[in-house]
Specification:
The protein has 361 residues and is mostly beta strands. The protein folds into three domains: 4-176, OB fold (Dihydrolipoamide Acetyltransferase, E2P); 185-291, Beta Barrel (OB fold (Dihydrolipoamide Acetyltransferase, E2P)), CATH 2.40.50; 296-358. The protein is 6% helix and 30% strand. The protein has helices at 29-32, 71-74, 120-128, 209-212, and strands at 49-55, 80-86, 94-100, 141-146, 149-152, 155-158, 171-176, 185-187, 216-224, 240-244, 250-254, 268-276, 284-291, 296-299, 305-310, 316-321, 331-332, 340-344, 353-358. The protein has a five-stranded antiparallel β-sheet. A five-stranded mixed barrel has the order 9-10-11-13-12. Strands 14-15-18 form a three-stranded antiparallel β-sheet, with no helix packed on it. Strand 12 (268-276) and strand 13 form a beta hairpin. It is globular. Mean pLDDT is 85; it is low at 1-22 and 336-342.
Length: 361
């Protein structure tokens, strides 16, 4: 089996023996995300299963995972955990992992007694860290043991069926750290949206939004229609920006919790995860992780993570954060982009996150 850059990944990384859930059948992302002509799930596999992939998001990019003491009395969902893993070894597709602090706030159909309360902190830590206490991050190869999954809004998610029952838990096991991110596939808005503005859906997943759902992609030639939703906020619904391509085809960007700098002027590139929200045959949007430059993460020779970015993005600075939180502290690194720059993780910084940020003159 080959990883990116042609590096060969030893097959024992993917062997089920010795990892949690080895007794369950292995399911692929392409099997789990299969749909009918109307966009509903056509998955007929086992309820409990093992699935493998590379983490393509960090824990706090989409939602704040820190316990919210006001959630119970305020009737809010509180902290949320959502991470995406992308298939490997020819398994095309990706799947979201989801947990929430207070499931009761989702709707009246959730029975009373499904609010973690303060128990959320150890519960979410169980899927945020490996057995040695190292926080999972983008580029890690993991195995997920799922006891249940739910189809919602066009995709099947691994979750707890919105219940706190222990037998609904899913587990995340580290197979290999710092494998590196899958290469972002280049997608045009015209691959996702017709001339009339409607989104392209294909139940066979050979083209259209389904073809890239849950995967890391790069979309070039975007320009903002409005800057509404650009500023960082914890509110998921408040982080949508509308964009268009040169032909006026509309699309939606969903911004992360971290600050991506000022809104870009003119045409720009966005890199992130193609997600599906709010529809079964539409609702495709890009969860944005990078604007402009594309950071390239891969396994380093010393076992850490190497980071590189190309020369043709001037006016950006490289920043690092050692602990993502509601108010992360990003520090500028001394790494001037030359033909190609590589930054190796420092000793004692195994969970460092990186970003390129446009300088404000």
């Amino acid at each position: 089996m080959r990883g990116r850059h042609g590096a060969r990944w030893p097959l024992f990384w993917l062997a089920a023996a010795g990892f949690a859930g080895a007794q369950l059948p292995v399911v692929t992302h392409s099997e789990l995300q299969a749909v009918h002509a109307d966009g509903t799930s056509s998955y007929t596999g086992p309820t409990g299963f093992v699935i493998r992939g590379i983490l393509v998001t960090d824990a706090d990019e989409m939602f704040d995972t820190a316990y919210d003491p006001e959630a119970t009395n305020g009737g809010s969902v509180g902290a949320v955990y959502q991470m995406f893993i992308q298939g490997v070894e020819g398994d095309r597709g990706g799947t979201a992992l989801y947990m929430a602090q207070n499931y009761e706030a989702i709707g009246p159909w959730v029975p009373v007694g499904n609010d973690y309360g303060p128990a959320w902190t150890p519960e979410v830590r169980r899927v945020l860290q490996d057995a040695d206490g190292r926080v999972f991050r983008k580029g890690d190869l993991v195995e997920v043991t799922a006891r249940i999954s739910l189809f919602y809004s066009g995709k099947r998610n691994i979750n707890e069926n919105h219940r706190t029952a222990t037998n609904n838990n899913f587990d995340v096991s580290l197979l290999k750290p710092n494998v590196g991110l899958p290469q972002a596939e280049v997608v045009a808005v015209s691959d996702l949206v017709r001339e009339d503005g409607t989104q392209i859906f294909d139940a066979t997943r050979a083209f259209g939004g389904e073809h890239w759902q849950g995967m890391r992609v790069r979309i070039d030639g975007l320009r903002l229609i409005s800057t509404n939703g650009w500023c960082p906020t914890n509110e998921w619904a408040a982080r949508q920006c509308r964009v268009e391509d040169a032909d006026g085809r509309p699309f939606v960007l969903r911004l992360p919790r971290v600050d991506l700098g000022p809104p870009p002027v003119g045409f720009f590139t966005a890199v992130g995860i193609l997600n599906q929200e709010g529809g079964q045959t539409n609702g495709y949007e890009l969860f944005v992780q990078e604007i402009g430059p594309m950071l390239d993460l891969r396994a380093g020779a010393s076992g850490g993570m190497e980071l590189s970015f190309p020369l043709d993005y001037e006016g950006y600075v490289l920043e690092a954060c050692d602990e993502l939180s509601a108010s992360p502290e990003w520090k500028q690194l001394d790494a001037t982009p030359v033909l190609r720059v590589v930054v190796e993780d420092e000793d004692g910084r195994p969970t460092r996150s990186y970003r390129l940020k446009r300088k404000i003159d």
